[in-house]
Structures are given as structure tokens and as C-alpha cells.
Amino acid sequence: IHKSFHNIHPAPSQLCCRSLSEVGAPRWNDYEVPEEFNFASCVLDYWAQMEKEGKRGPNPAFWWVNGQGDEVKWSFRETADLTRRTANIFTQTCGLQQGDLLALILPRVPEWWLVAVGCMRTGIIFMPATIMLKAKDILYRLQMSKAKGIVTTDTIASDVDSMASECPSLKTKLLVSDHSREGWLDFRSLIKSASPEHTCIKSKTVDPMVIFFTSGTTGFPKMAKHCHGLALQSSYPTSRKIRSLKTSDVSWCLSDPGWILATMGALVEPWTAGCTAFIHHLPQFDTKVIIQALLKYPINQFFGAPSIFRMILQQDFTSIRFPALEHCCTGGEVLWPKDQEEWKRRTGLPLYDIYGQSETGIICATLREMKIKPGFLGKASPPYDVQIIDDKGNILPPNTEGTIGIRIKPARPVTLFMGYEGNPEKTAEVECGDFFNTGDTGMMDEEGYICFLGRSDDIINASGYRIGPAEVESALMEHPAVAESAVVSSPDPIRGEVVKAFIVLTPQFLSHDKDQLTKDLQDHVKSVTAPYKYPRKVEFVPDLPKTITGKIKRKELQKKEMGQM
Ligand code: BCO
Question: At what angle do helices 514-528 and 469-477 cross, to 10 degrees?
Fold first, then answer.
């Protein structure tokens, strides 16, 4: 049981992939695409069955703590049972059907995992989003998607009620709370009485499964739609080697459930390996709580954005040994070699990098068995063929700067997003010859290691959050002090990058105290849109650099910020 799962069992996905066994494929390989795949029946139910037959160890599928003494531990059988009940709530109580869209806005509570898998069982397309969203962000998502349902918590429920008349498609509102609310179904009561009998849909691998909202340079977030094939990524042999998870492992991925990193790192990956997904509620980020948890619990696999590791390193310790910790992995933003070295020096553990996007899942990785090259992301992770390309899609030679591209022709990888829902123009824009254009610039060395050099557009990556400058500018413009603004990325020693706003004030605010104005504007942005986007730096300027047609030259401000001008 403690041996690598992959050595002793067929991949769970083979269980339901008749097309594979029909053609006599001996085992799953890095590129096979079964005709049918559903993570719930192929993976979760597989482990539940293994557990029933006494063929796996006693470690739970799910282990949740909140730091106040509350704890939830579910075996694979219990998890499978609860997710079937959830599926029945959706179809029987709520009348939702395969293909319907459901917004999933929860903090790190156990119900998030039930809802995500319950959706997979029924073919309902779930749309995770961070609990930090504000009313306008939520309204935008509900209207864009025409979601038929929402599962959320008290804080968001009142926002949803206040705009119900503007979301005519929204029929089902499920509340995860210890209190009831008028007009909302009570998830925690319903799950107690729901039937545990449910037959999982036979989803085609290419049927839609999940949508992530993702920011761009212009406009508001786009809907990156993925099929069930996304959840196949962790079943591929090479992907398994990224963290080499074993059934006995306890894996903690810190990502907020709103991001693809959580869907993959806190659900799909650990359960594909048959190990424990450990979750700390962590309503506020607190490095001390993280350190204490790593000391207290048998967590041996740890996964989070580089800023989290940097913030832990800010704590006052010269050396620390976490008793169970074996493997640390990071992704979502740039990992600096000095942090990799410092983490190794102070914890004794190497820090492995992965690279991916909401559109792609994991694109590149330094596998556990690979040599770490500081400053490099690792190599292409199958099924992706990653190349450095020019602006026509031609492959560039090693050590040449270009765009990081993923081959989509002649075959589009099933783990790559299906497109931006309802936006064929934007979907076409990210295609470049035979490649998907990540929008990131990079370089590949002779050994196939890829390094990240920057964004080719104006997107800001602040501590792992992808932030569109237009979203922040639009929030700033709602404040009476702002005549004009330009938002760019600014380097930061802890968060990698932070949001910086250059602001031209309206005449009546010119004489106001600048420190107070800065604080007011920051609070304003935090109150009208998800607070992680607020400008941590503000500079008041008499005017903004513009082209002769009046377009703001963000690149010029950006260069100045980077000290390049
Ligand atoms: O800095 P401040 O304290 O002034 O502001 C913070 C919060 O206090 C504030 N806030 C939160 N909820 C609020 C609120 N303010 C008003 N009302 C509320 N309801 O907003 C600010 C939030 O900023 P933050 O989250 O960046 O700060 P924090 O708490 O220091 O967290 C640090 C990190 C590192 C934990 C956090 O930045 C983080 O989780 N980063 C990682 C993001 C991530 O996982 N990205 C991966 C995306 S998926 C991907 O890249 C694909 C990879 C395959």
C-alpha cells in the first residue's frame, strides 16, 4: 500500500475507459485520451472500492481542520457517499441538469470538495470563484455565465439577494451555513437526508466540466472552459512524477478554492494518487498558523505559491525542521533562485517549481526525480508539447527568447481549455500557428528546461494572483478623486509584483492629504472589487503618458517601474 500506487495498480482511469481496454492498451500513457472519463467514478469510486476490499491503508481521503479544534476526516467511502448525496441534491432537490452552470463561491470548507465532485457526477459545470469577490464581481460572473445555481456562504448570500432581479437565470441558491436564510436551500440539512445512491453520468472526456474566470489586459475576466479531460492530467505517468504522491501521503495545497491550483492541487492530484488531501480553513493568511500546522500534522507534501514560501522565510528562524515534510512544490508566479536556496538552507528541503495557467493546468514542471535548475520552471509536462515560438508560431532554437507556446495542431491536448465560453474572438486570439499562445515570454535551454522571462501583455501577477489592469482602473474611476488612472505591475521583494496605480486627481482633490487619499483609494478598491487587486502602491501624477491617439502608454510606466528607463 505504501509503494507508489502506479507500480501496483492500473491507473484508476482505466477502470471506466472501455475504449482503452477494448484496444488492448496495456496501460495509461502520457497521451491517451479515453472516450469516456469522469473523475468521480473513475478515480474517487475506485479508491472507495479499494478501501471496501481492504486493499488500501487507513489514511483518509480528506482531513480538514480550522485551528479552533474542529476537525473533519472522511474516508474515500465516506467522501464518495457524500458526493453522491450532493449529486442528488443538485438533480432531485434543485432540478439542475447536465450542462447547467453553477457558481461555487466558498472558502476552504469541506463542502467545497463535495460540490465540485457532486457536479462532476451530474455533469453540472461548476465555476469556482474566490470568497473575496464583491457584489459587482459576482453579478458580472452570474450574468456572463447565466448560471442556474450558486452555492455560497452567508457573506456572499446577501450580495446575491440584493441583485437577484438582475440575474433572471439564477434559480437555485444553496447556502453552506449553520444558519438558514429565506429563499435559500440549506445544504447542510439537505445532505443529511439526501440518498447516497446515485449513478454517475457517463461523461465523454471532452464534455465540459469546469469554468475558471481569468483576467486579461482589457475588459473583465474571460471564462476558460475545461472538459473532464483536465482531471486526467494527474493520471498521466509524467504528471504523477511531479510530486510522486503515494497513497500514504498527506498533501496540503494552500491555494484558495477559487483558483485552478486548488482544483488540481487540493482535489484532483491527491485523490488520483489515493492520498489524503489536508486542508486548513485559514480564513486569514497567517504564516505562524502555517508553520504550526506543518509542525503539528503529518503533512509530508506541501504546495503553494512562491509568495507563501517567501512570507514563511520572513519569520524569525534560522533553521527549522518540519518532522514529516518531504516535498515542497510551488507555482502560480515566478520563483526566484534566492528563495529556493534560502528555503533549502533553512528547512533542509528543496523547493520544486511548476508552471501553469487557468487555461492549461500544469504546463512545465521540475519532476521530483529531476535536477533543479535555479531560475528554470522545469521541462514540458506531457501531454503538452511546449516550444518557444515567434509571433508567427515558428519554433525558435534553444536559448532564444520568444513566446511560450503549447502545440494544438494536429491535435489539441485534452487537458487544455476548450476555449473562452461565448468568446470565439478571444479564443482565436490566443492561437498562433500550430500553438496556443500562453502570453508569457520565455527561453528553452539545450536540455529542454524552460525559463520564464515575463508577460507579453499588461497582466499583473501579484503574489500569484492574475490581475487585469483594466479591472483595477475601472474600480478607481468610480472614486470622485480619480480623473484618470493607469495601473501597472511594480516589483516587490515579498509578493514578487504588486499593483501600482498612477493617478491624475480631479481638481477638487488636488489639495487633499496624499497619504489619506492613498488609503481612501485603496479602501475604495477593496470595497468594490476583490480586495487582492487593490493598488499597494499609489503615485499621484499631473498627467499620464499617451500615444497621439490618446491611448495610455502603460508599457512606458511599467518600464520606469522596473528601473529600465
Ligand atoms: O494586505 P492587506 O492586509 O491590506 O489586504 C489583504 C486582505 O487583508 C484584504 N482582504 C481580504 N478579504 C477582504 C479584504 N479586505 C476587505 N474585505 C475583505 N473581505 O485583501 C488583501 C488580500 O491580499 P492577499 O490575498 O494578496 O494578501 P495576504 O492575505 O497577505 O495573502 C498572501 C498570499 C500569498 C497567501 C496570497 O497572496 C495568495 O494566496 N497568493 C496565491 C494565489 C494563488 O494561489 N494563485 C494561483 C492561481 S492558479 C495558477 O496560477 C495556475 C497554476 C497552475
Answer: 110
